[in-house]
Amino acid sequence: RSLMGANMQRQAVPLLKPDAPLVGTGMEYVSGKDSGAAVICKHEGIVERVQAKEVRVRRISEVDGKEVEGDLDRYRLQKFIRSNQESCYNQRRIVSKGDRVTKGEILPDGPPMDMGELALGQNPLVAFMTWDGYNYEDAIIMSERLVKDDVYTSIHIEEYESEARDTKLGPEEITRDIPNVGEDALRDLDDRGIIRVGAEVSDGDLLVGKVTPKGVTELSAEERLLHAIFGEKAREVRDTSLRVPHGAGGIVLDVKIFNREDGDELPPGVNQ
Questions:
Q1: Contacts of the segment 46-54: beta carbons below 8 A, 24+ positions apart
Q2: Of 159, 156, 153, 152, residue with least CA distance to 245
Q3: What does the UniProt keyword field contain (predicted)?
Q4: Measuring CA to CA, which residue among 163, 157, 137, 123 is closest to residue 28?
Q5: Could you give the dihedral angle defined by the CA atoms of residues 13, 15, 19 and 22, in that order, rounded to the nearest 10 degrees?
Q6: Whether residue 10 is found in the same domain as residue 110
Q7: Same domain for 139 and 237?
Q8: Per-residue pLDDT of the chain (272 residues; tens, 9 = 90+)
Q9: Are 127 and 179 in a shared domain?
């Protein structure tokens, strides 16, 4: 049982609101400090400036019984970094301007920490009782507040890629001009056909607009009508855009574009 419990702790994901355990072993601070997830103060000093991404500490040393100010140390914080397991690596400051810190003290918390202590779970109130049969055998009942208050909410950062390749029928094109797609579906795409940073997306929404050439096919009744009205043949392309997978969704954090024309190294046959 102890081995299974230790293995389950190893699989814990960082929570949005970590909470240090009420009942601990006394080693939570040591474990958090030695985990490498926190930033440790290198010299004794006074906190001069605190920002979301940086903490500045002015060194204090004692010379002939008097305190003398020294160099300014800058400690960078990592914010919303994607880990290999697609979890969110985020460091939060736990000191304020004017605080006196000592060498070896934790300045910002790491992802699985709360005020310097290792925090892998939460401290919910648990009752061992019956409740109209809803918790029969191994079933459990959870309060709606656990969801509303984001007690067990975690952030996950996923990465999606789209490639524009050379095909036998011609090159693929990343564009905003996608056949049979309404303007409402294109509202968050920029002029290049790529989703804007900060857009909120859900399953099925467009991330990258892309069209692929298709072979000569028989014109449908709709295409013949368009040809008769506008006097031009509809483009022989099909929609191969990148969309949000089923069940996924969130807010776009970053967009990176690699282009062969700009000198970026891409696999053979990939233009963008």
A1: 46/98, 46/99, 46/100, 46/101, 47/95, 47/96, 47/97, 47/98, 47/99, 47/100, 47/101, 48/72, 48/97, 49/97, 50/93, 50/95, 50/96, 50/97, 52/77, 52/79, 52/93, 53/77, 53/79
A2: 159
A3: DNA-directed RNA polymerase, Nucleotidyltransferase, Transcription, Transferase
A4: 123
A5: -30
A6: yes
A7: no
A8: 999 988 988 888 999 999 999 998 999 999 888 988 899 999 999 999 999 999 999 999 888 878 888 899 999 999 989 988 889 999 999 999 999 999 999 999 999 899 999 999 899 999 999 999 999 989 999 999 999 999 999 999 999 999 998 888 888 889 988 888 888 888 999 999 999 999 999 999 999 999 988 765 566 777 677 767 765 545 578 889 999 999 999 999 999 999 888 888 888 888 88
A9: no
CATH code of 243's domain: 2.40.50.150
- Which CATH number characterizes residue 138's domain? 2.40.50.100
Torsional class of 260: left (φ above 0), alpha (ψ -120 to 50), beta (otherwise) = alpha
Note whether 22 and 115 are same-domain residues. Answer: yes
Which SS3 state, helix, strand or coil, does residue 227 take?
helix
Both tokens assigned to 233: 């043949």
Residues 145 and 268: their CA atoms lie apart, in Å, by 52
- Angle at the Cα of 267 from the Cα atoms of 261 and 268, rounded to 5 degrees: 85
Residues 20, 138, single domain; the answer is yes
Tokens of 8: 């389950």
How far apart are the C-alpha atoms of 234 and 104, rounded to whole Å?
68
Residue 127 in domain: yes
